[in-house]
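User: Hello! My lab partner asked me to get a predicted holo structure for this protein. The small molecule is molybdenum atom, SMILES included with the sequence. Please write out the structure tokens.
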Amino acid sequence: MTNELQRRAVLSGAITAAALLHGRAVAQAGANKVIPGSDQPPPVPAPLANVAKGLTRWEDLDSWITPNDKFFSIAHYNRPLIDEKAWRLDVDGMVAKPATLTLNELKALPRHEITSTLECSGNNGLPFLSSLVGNAQWAGASLAEMLRTAQVKGGALEVVFYGVDQGEEVVRKDTPIEAKFNGTFARSMSIDDAMNPANLLCYEMNGSPLPAANGFPVRLIVPGWYGVANVKWLRRIELRDTRYMGRFMGRDYVTVREVQRDGRTTVTETSVGRMLLKSAPARVTLRDGHYQIDGMAWGPVPVAAVEVKIDNGPWVKADLDDSQSEFAWRLWHLDWSPAPGEHTVTSRAIDKAGNSQPAMDDPSIANKKTYWESNGQITRHIRVA
Ligand SMILES: Nc1nc2c(c(=O)[nH]1)N[C@H]1C(S)=C(S)[C@@H](COP(=O)(O)O)O[C@H]1N2
Ligand SMILES: [Mo]
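Assistant: Hello! Below are the structure tokens for the protein in complex with molybdenum atom.
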């Protein structure tokens, strides 16, 4: 965290003293030796290199707040560069008071801040998709207040959020009824979900205007939901009385799982929505002969505990940082005295209700046919000299 950011964080009171202390611990860690995992992911294959960018090594995710220059970005179509003076946000459809807002008008609305963790639901779903997660302090206008001002009409069912970015889509490809069209990145939510007071029409990330890659000038922040719900380069908010079934609701980011029902195997196909309970061992450091494992844990509800398994040993409780905020990840640490050689380090998060992050062979992971929502336990490989 930069000094400027720390100063702002202190001023805004949004980051706890413990988090700053941790920041200091990391800053002092210059003398620490980071032992990089011997399991670094392969590079993102060329056709996807523009889709997934800025994948930070787990070892470099070493602070509670992920700085903007270390934050990953995902773009399924183009990466628009928007002129903030020309930018407008339309609020229309089933509302009594449709509106078009400029950036200054949006910024003039009451400002809200939230620190929340954003994870791409593809994270850890494929070998090259790794560390697609970060934690930032977001600021913007309240979506719920905006919707109340627009006066949603009775009978409205969903809110659709459209980005500026577009690309060619094909339905029934290579058949006589193939249809091509120009698709727009969009996601929908129920009105209930959209009215969550935590949701932001966000224009600021860690005290700076949103970077272009993360949605400049305005994006949606939906704390507790997977990345895909957090529409960037926001252009339009539409209220509808029918379900929106665009690519990112109905065809892509659809998790297919085999489930047992009455002794038979059936399949569920569900749109990626709320984040799942997850944790990761991020790095191992060596200082004055002492090893420490650092990681983070996050989920749809606050994480209550993290346990770590070394090789095939027992699960051991890690120390949780008290850098907490309802929707933000928690940092955790474990002292370690390894023998020289190759080791595995596995972590699992546990929530307040006692639910545990599933093992990779748990049916919820093993019987999943698509790669999204891969919240199975992550095992890192570490070679100790
Ligand atoms: N307009 C638009 N919004 C988008 C996307 C996109 O391609 N276009 N990708 C989504 C996905 S899949 C993720 S994981 C998050 C990533 O947010 P970030 O790029 O700020 O890290 O943005 C979401 N919002
Ligand atoms: Mo994503």
